[in-house]
Amino acid sequence: MKIKLSFILVIVLLAACSKKTLKGDNYTYYRQEIEKSKRLQHQAKQTEASKTETFKNPSKPSYLTASERVKFAQLLEVEETAIKNEKLYATINEWLGTPYDWGGSTKQGVDCSSYVQQVYQKVYKTELPRTSIEQFYLDTKSHFKNQKYLKEGDLVFFRLRYEDKVVSHVGIYLQNGKFTGSNSPHGVQIANLDDAYWQDKYVACARLLNNQ
């Protein structure tokens, strides 16, 4: 009888231990699943936050290499951080050194108005007339004389010969007194508007860009 009771007690104890073990295993499993679910939710929130931040502050494409930024900073005599419109300077970089050719419109030779026209179209998606005189008269309300108000992207007009009517040359103002143009005999270059030669030929400026 004692042996039988002992055997039954052992069976009961084993069953109880088995239930405790099963419950322990189940608890561990559910705890792991809950933690896994929390991790997945946290990762999902981080991914969504990252997408939202990217949408709010999309990164600007880079058009210039580090050495090109240095080159333009030196040409303009400014800090590298002042080179903000990389697309503009990358486009200028494609043309720098192109020979001047009256009536030309390619990288084998280009005149001032065609150069300005093509830069404006590529950088600002703005169509300009073909000649400097047409560009001058495109919007006379945009004209101003005082050079201290010049901003990047403004057109600068010149009268190279006294016999010329009104204007005969055009360039694009950059910054720090510098402008770019296809200037005879040097071709496409960055020139100093403050030089006596250009000051003597200067007529007016025009701001054709709405965002200026």
Describe the structure.
- The chain has 212 residues and is α+β, with helices and mostly antiparallel strands.
- The chain has two domains: 1-59; 99-206, endopeptidase fold (from Nostoc punctiforme).
- It is built from six helices and eight strands.
- It has helices spanning 2-56, 66-76, 86-95, 112-124, 132-137, 196-201; strands at residues 105-106, 109-110, 143-144, 155-158, 169-173, 178-183, 187-192, 202-206.
- A six-stranded antiparallel β-sheet has the order 3-8-4-5-6-7.
- A hairpin with a 3-residue loop joins β6 and β7.
- The protein is elongated.
- The N and C termini lie far apart (105 Å).
- Residues 2-24 and 52-57 have low confidence and may be disordered.
N-to-C series of helices and strands? HHHEEHHEEEEEHE
What is the arithmetic mean of pLDDT?
84
Gross geometry: elongated
CATH class of the largest domain: Alpha Beta
Share of helical residues: 40-55%
Question: Can you tell me the CATH architecture of the largest domain?
Answer: Alpha-Beta Complex
> Could you say how many structural domains there are in total?
2
| The named CATH superfamily of the largest domain | endopeptidase domain like (from Nostoc punctiforme)
Give the low-confidence spans.
2-24, 52-57
